[in-house]
Amino acid sequence: MFERRTHFRNRWSCLFLSLALSLAFSLIFYAFNTPLGPSIGSDNAIYLTMGTALADGYAPYTEIFDHKGPALFLLQWLPQALSGGYSTLAVFIQEVLVLTLCLWVLAAIAGELDAPAWIVQLVYLAPTCSLVGGGNLTEEYTNLPTLFGLYTALRVFGHEDFPRSKRLLADAALMGACVALAFLVRANNVLPLACVCLVLALGLLLGRRFAVFGRCAMGFLLGFVGICLPVALWLMHENALGAAFYGAIVHNMMYAQTGGGSRLSMLLASGYGHMALLMAALACLGAWALWKKRRAFLFAAAMVAGAAGGGLAAFISHKFYDHYLMLGAPLAALGTAALLTVLEGRRAKAVLCASAAVCCAWLCLKGVQTDAWRLAEREGLDTFTQNAQTLMAHVPEEERDRFMAYRVEPKWYVAAEALPCMRFYFLQEILAQADPAVMDEIVATFESEPPLWLVIYYNRAFDPPYDARVEEIMRTRYAFVDAAGEYQLLRLIQP
Length: 495
Prior knowledge:
about 500 residues; mainly alpha
């Protein structure tokens, strides 16, 4: 009884410590939504608009579009539905809860490997602070099911005499649910965990563990379907299942191939590639340590495959945004935990002290830089918001359902507290660069159901440039109303 009560106390004290770390980290590094003064950002603004539109009754994909998975739509809808719309505080609370759970699972992973939880959590937070880019991004949310999946796989397969579980079917179902959740946030984000599962499955088949494989496969399928089926039914209810497949799969893959950066050059000659290699190296070193300590060859091989999957997820696109690298952080933290288990005596203490010093110094340095960046962004945001609201004041309340901001920063909608009347509501030519059919639809909408009010940039060159058809429509069918900053408000001449 004493042991159970002690375990309970340790478990909850670890949760509260995780919450404290999460809150401190989030206040500084989730700069787009922090209560200290959010700077909004670009992707975050897209998601704030998406969530507010869904809370206002818009249908996903068909009335408000993004090339992410349906789970992200739900994650953006929830805080806005609870808060009334365009709430950065509601998103911040959601982010804190997600990060707290991530750190809690990391503590459980450390406990499974008899490693100090606090250093594993620091190793996770240190690279993440450089990659999170202001927060509220798909990789941030994907890492939670990835960590749950890794912890489950570690408990079951992280020993020589695997599988070590009395509830193998339930564990496999949890793995399937985690893979489904990662996939539904964004399809390519599932690669690290999917590679882990694939190697584990192949290992069971090659080892002729057919009975274990059958139970794992059945449980995995039940978990996967248990998550995907309700989401599919929701999309069918919204008449958006086909549009969701196009957006989350087809357009997502098309978008990944735009841009011309060389993958090999980025891998070998940039900080982006060096960070990817560092996290993959930590995962691989941890796999070696786990094999040496526990002879858990299959799980060690799965860790190496997961590291490769994280690298593939970071390099599948030619755009190389830093936040893509966040997908490698769970395996890097797991690798660190495993690596610490083979160190003993003074060497272990020295490594722990050095690691803690490096992580804390890095977090402090990046924290100061991030806060300075946030404050600089805030200065421009105040002027931007004033300009947006000045122009939006011309639009009567009864006509705001026919408003559109075309090819301006996505944060325009947030600043003006407006919603778009077209489903392609941000960076239209960028989306059309991936799929020209997007621009055909936009032109057709301008012809059949044109926005009554339109906000655009003026005197600004774009790459890619305005589509000539859209430019002609704006020039001939819209009249100038007012200008503020770099933006002008137009109104349809003949509604």
